[in-house]
Amino acid sequence: MAKKNIKLNYALKSEADKTQPALLYVMFTLGGKRKKISLGYKVVPEYWDSENNCVLISSKQTQLQQREMKRINKFLKQFEHYVSTLIDADVLADYESKLIPSAVGTYGIVARLKEAIDKIKGKEIQEEKAHTFTPLEYFKKVVEEMPKKVIRRTSKIIEDRTVGHHKIVLKRFERFINYKHWVASSFSIFNKNFESEMEQWMLGVEEYSANTVAATFSVMKVWLKQAEEEGLITDKSFHSWKSKGADVQHIYLNDAELEAIYNLNFDEILKLHPNAKYEETRDIFIIASHIGIRYGDLSSLNKSNWDIENKTVEIHTHKTGATVLVPLTSTVIELYKKYNGKFPTPRDKSRFNEQLQKIGELAGIDQTIYIKKNVGGKVVIEEKKKYELISSHTARRSFATNLYLRCRNARLVMNFTGHTTEENFRKYICVEKSEYVEMAREFFN
Prior knowledge:
Elements: E1 9-12, E2 22-30, E3 33-43, E4 48-49, E5 54-55, H1 63-86, H2 89-98, H3 101-107, H4 109-130, H5 135-145, E6 150-151, E7 156-157, H6 160-179, H7 194-205, H8 210-229, H9 255-262, H10 267-272, H11 278-291, E8 305-307, E9 312-316, E10 323-327, H12 330-338, H13 349-362, E11 368-375, E12 378-385, H14 392-407, H15 410-417, H16 422-428, H17 433-444
Helix pairs in contact: 1-4, 3-4, 5-6, 11-13, 11-14, 14-15
């Protein structure tokens, strides 16, 4: 006798509000009686496809909803497979009719179907557990995949230095959960109290600056937004985390200081460090301070369009993707001729900065600078020599500040720096109060 299977039908529980999820049932007829079993899933009526007995996936759904809909469809396929391969309607119906009433609930087809539902769901739970990441594991995965991703706004691959910054924050987060002795097995730790607890640890225990705290939260918010999109976190508290630091005190080098650096003789230092290439570092820094480019664009100097006759250079900036045309000073033209247009490649950034500070010291840039910082939740005043604060970015700030002090025209300088608002530009340049007073004095006089 050929095997004859049960025909299953599905339907949603009738609800007055059709926009709300309704319970999904499986129904079938056995021995002339209509049977109905809840599958334990809820579906919004507009997403239920009654012809194909499946849930529709829509772009209107959140990623979390889409995952749930896929889970239901997967369950339905497995349930249909179970029924088609393991349950013979004729045999079981005959068997069930011979059972005493008290045994029907245990051994009958209804019980078998309920067992199938529980078994499939149990297997589903085990599979989910096997593929569930702890927050730390998930964050590691996000950071590992960063080099393969493209930034939508710029259509560029994420830079190595950005990945490196994320790795630093990842280690910081790992130290924090170890300090708290948290198992941190789920994203439930990111509740309304998490920000204050981690901030207290960073400021009070690790004695980080307030800006480091803000930078840490800024990176972690990127990870948590991705986790939210994937339905791993539902608490919205992290959206309000502090992620913008206070303005940091920077320096610039004036024309006289830049000239002192340019006129340095490296004979003595080269006797001690013959392979250090201090002169190359100095020359590249001087070029950057005269055309205003970032450290990341120094390697593009040889690929830029140099027009010595018209004294201009056209540079494609790496960070923003913008192309700027900058006038050349006589100093830059001298250096262009010195290297025949083939500039040396800048060394590692940390080594570059280390050499710049030594160069600044040799040039006598030793003015005492008092810096106010927030460290460990307390305001402290640090005393530094100016040369200790010189870095690769000092060149660009020096270009912007010196040009602004000459022309007093923010919009003109912004054409070369790429700033889009005067507010941000004025934070960027290093104009002291006394210099603003001198500017104003012209008008008073």
